[in-house]
Amino acid sequence: MTKHTRVTRSALAVGLGLLLVSQILAQGSPKLAITIIDEKVNQTSEERAGQSAVTITPGDTMRYILTAANTGDAVMKNPSIVDPIPAGVEYIPLSATGANAKIQFSLDGGKTYSNWPVEYQFTNPAGKKVKKQATADMITHVKWDIKARIQPNTSRELSFQVVVK
Hints:
The protein is mainly beta.
């Protein structure tokens, strides 16, 4: 005598649902890793040739190169990368770059961001609200909203330049 097991539609639906959930959970997750390299742009010929140490003095131009890498095992969708402007330097207008990225700037320590040229509002001595264009030395942070997916084990390069005070 053979014993048959009958699977009902509701049991089959629950089994398929659990299989779907397990596949979704097994997809992994993205992981953002940021590396930052700074380099002196206006090196002397001796510095470029390695014949002397690279020295940084007021007036020198520095480039900060950020690499945003997805070290996870799933696609990263539209990440935002924020980097503060280091102390002792001033942002060089229009120097920020990043493919497929919306680049914005902060004047208030990273609380709010605006497109370039950044404007701010203040109340003048007569009590009237006035808008004024920010100067480069007022920029505190740069933000890149990357408008693309970053596949696992791939990266995006972002950069900006500053002048040493």
